[in-house]
Amino acid sequence: MEAKNFNSPNSASHDFLQNCRMTLPLRVFLESSHEAVYVCSTAKIVLCMNLAAERLFGYSSDELVGQNLEVLIPQELIQESNEIMDRIQLGEHCEPFETVRLSKNGSYIDVSVSVLPINNEGDSDLNFMVIARNRTSHRISNPEKHLNLNEENRSVVLETVRRVAMDILLSRSGIESLGKIAEAARTLSGAQYAALGVARQDGLGLQDFFTIGISEEQEKIIGSAPKGLGILGLLLHRTEPLRIDILANHPASVGFPAHHPPMQSFLGVPIKRGKAILGSLYLSNKEGGGAFTPADETAVQSLSEYAAVSIYYMQMMQRQRALASSLITSQEEERRSVAYDLHDGLTQFVMASHAHLEAFQSARTLGKAERAERELELGLQYIKEAVVESRRLINGLRSLALDDLGLTGALDQLISEEKARSGWNSAEFQHNIEGRRFDKSLETTVYRIAQEALTNAHKHSKTDRVQVIIWAESADKDEEERLRLEVRDWGIGFDLDKQAVAVSGVGLQGMAERVRIMSGSYQFESVPGAGTLIRAIFPVLQQPHHSDQGE
Question: Can you give the CATH number for the domain in which 126 is found?
């Protein structure tokens, strides 16, 4: 899915996606849906759209976003559109209805449309999302299985799609829709039992399981089945549906858990997003005792695509929560680090200066000129140290050098300052990115990790030699460019197992979290008596143009 659909230069679309509380759900639904989806304001201005909408109407996102929705509506149907707008203003949603829309070249398109109201949290302005399905050209994964759904089944599919969208956009969770998808699949196929499982990301089975027509105790047994057993495991390894007329005759049937309800006919569909298998949906016991048909397979496949939308959104929300937790942890770690530096650094210099200046005042009152001069000199020296330390702390909170000097210039300055502060004999800096700029978040992350690593070396390593390497590694044809950071010292090191508690207190966890947030890899090595190595590898994010940053 190309990013242009979500990054149109049109200000209306940009403002909507930036300010709407449902930005993530909208992105997920727009990106994943195979139906044409577009969001509009109640003034009928198109705010954003997906690639399926581009294909259906013939407009690019740049052409249609910011335009009035009525360019897609035949003149004779404008009144119908106005009536729908009246309902949307009342917060109602419109059940799927059949109508006609205009393409860019002026041709008529028969579509089935659902309209859902959405709004920003705490905002009275109401927007709405339109899901349009081309009634004359259904998307079927395998052309050999191209079978049109009858009107009743098509209505079930469209209603389920509407529910998926409502669950994702309004309840901020995709999990509710999975049970509804399983129920809709059972209804479409006329099955006695239906089950939908979400694959665990570690590949070791299923993390969520939804069943229809199966008891709670049986559901627990089915959901706990290992991935590698029988047809349940087979579905998670398949890319195409599996229909079995008589399950007992299939060799994989022995892999079903004990006490599973007796099953005769079987239809299983893998839930896919791209090449990834996100889960599986299976049905059993066709009503009337017959076998599932190719038409059943087509109908269930259409639903599995929306199960993939829900599962993908669930995973996105899980990752978002994990990142939020990581950010909070990192922020707390930084606050503790600043408090530590203030207490053991700046505060000590200020207190020492205060003590010597008081001694100077006392000596001068007593007429002890030599001692007064010595105390004044020491007090001024500590004030200078306090100024240097305060500048270091300010730079630690926000590196002004990054803005002025770029990544290599800022790192070179940082290394020089730490060398002078620590009294290292050698502080080597190697790089191959002279003059290059990267995305601000990447530059800041690399700088902070190097800063934390050098601070740890100063405080804990008892070394007289450090080395910093920042290296852009050329990418292969199928891989992106990477940026590698290494900070090494030849100090006392430590045993990771014996000093795990101490390790967590010197910012190592915060560094690891920073790297993970940037989708990089992190490695920490330390050997007693041989020093410590910190290595972080990041996917390269180039510095965007100013117009992209909104500056």
Answer: 3.30.450.20
